[in-house]
Design a protein that fits this description.
Elements (H helix, E strand, L loop, with lengths): L1 H12 L3 E2 L13 E4 L6 H4 L6 E4 L5 H10 L1
Parallel strand pairs: 2-3
Antiparallel strand pairs: 1-2
Length: 71
């Protein structure tokens, strides 16, 4: 589908890491990690429907909480 193709392009842009390699990639989407994307990127700002998780570093827990609350 168009949505899946668009999502795959976004994930490729951020060098996403697939956690599995599903044989049914035609109908599903593999669990995927995106490490350290830009905080203003579409991987963070858009609501992506799929088993995708972005991992953002932080130094202080207060910074992480503020970032989440600001979304």
């Amino acid at each position: 589908t168009d949505t899946k193709i668009q999502l795959e392009k976004i994930l490729k842009k951020y060098n996403a890491i697939k956690l599995t390699n599903s044989s049914d990639s035609k109908h599903g989407f593999d669990p995927t990690l995106v490490i350290c994307p830009d905080k203003h990127s579409e991987i963070i700002t858009k609501e992506l429907f799929g088993p995708i998780i972005a991992i953002l570093p932080y130094i202080k827990i207060d910074d992480a909480i503020k970032f989440i609350n600001d979304q």
